[in-house]
Each structure stands twice: as C-alpha cells, then as structure tokens.
Amino acid sequence: MFTQYKFWEPYASPYDPCPPIKVKSFSTPPQLYINFQPPGLEQFEPREALFRGTLWKVLYSPYPGPSKRGDGDE
Questions:
Q1: Could you write out the three-class secondary structure of 34-68?
Q2: CA 70, 52, 27: angle at the middle one, nearest 5?
Q3: How far is 74 from 58, CA to CA, in rounded Å?
Q4: What is the model's pTM?
Q5: For a FRET experiment, which of 50, 63, 67, 69 has its CA 20 to 30 Å from that of 4?
C-alpha cells in the first residue's frame, strides 16, 4: 500500500538520560513516485489549488500534526 509517511524505530540506549522516542516518522513527497505527468490528471478548482499549493490532486501532500505522524508521546 502506498503511503507518503514512513516510520522507523530508532535505537534507544539504556544510558540515554532523555526519555526515548519509540517511533519516528518522515514524509516523502508524492512527486517521487510519478515518473512523468500523465495526461488528464484530476485537478483542484483554482481557489482550492491556491489553498493546497498545487493544481493536481495526486501531488498534494498534507502536513499532519505530530500526534498523527507517530513521533509524539503516545
């Protein structure tokens, strides 16, 4: 399944004085997965495209909050 968000579990040393972050995440931009722009891509309406930062829906990448990324204290 394709997802723009990747997760990993970093090593947590038993001697680290800080509480460990058990799961970290990062996002990959959608253009990494599109080799070329195929014709007929679905588009946002002009006003929505200005809000989203892109005209094409497949290239939109939201910025979720830390609690949804998996790297917050859970």
A1: CCCCCCCCCECCHHHHHHHCCCEHHHCCCCCCHHH
A2: 30
A3: 30
A4: 0.56
A5: 50
Q: Do the beta carbons of residue 40 and residue 57 sit within 8 Å?
A: no
Assess contact for 26 and 6: CB atoms under 8 A. yes
Structure tokens at 59: 């290239």
Which pair of tokens denotes residue 38?
Answer: 């195929």
Distance separating alpha carbons of residues 33 and 6, to the nearest angstrom = 14
The residues, any chain, with a CB within 8 Å of residue 56's CB and separated by 6 or more, are: 37, 41, 42, 43, 44
